[in-house]
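A quick aside before the break. I want you to see a complete sequence-to-structure record at least once, exactly as it would be stored in a machine-readable document. Don't worry about memorizing anything.
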Amino acid sequence: MKKRTIERSMFYNASPEIFRRAEELRKNMTEAEMVLWNKLNKNQLGFRFKAQHPIERFIADFYCHKARLVIEVDGEIHNFQQEYDLGRAAEIEKYELKILRFTNEEVFNKIDQVIEKIKMNL
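That is the input. The structure line, written in tokens, reads:
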């Protein structure tokens, strides 16, 4: 019997509906997401990042396929959905992806430290 391998395409079997939702989210990024996107886009860190990227049934705020790195920017709502976030992280990590989480406050007030931490994980 052939050993089943983990799907490694950039989108990890995301459905057409997830792609549609991701497109809407790209058009309506939060202020914190825009601040970080302005530091990540156009290969500024030497790696290509995609904003609002489908991964299976989820949408990562930012994703770098080459580094297998997911970046999430968490607003206040994440204070009330920690169990959901843990489950979501476990689902994403099954694809051997690393997840970095930053709060809106970190992005707004410590962007240089956020970028350094991202660089350390590339």
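Two observations worth writing down. Helices lie at 16-27, 31-40, 82-93, 104-109, 111-120. Residues 16-27 form the longest helix (12 residues). We'll return to this after the break.
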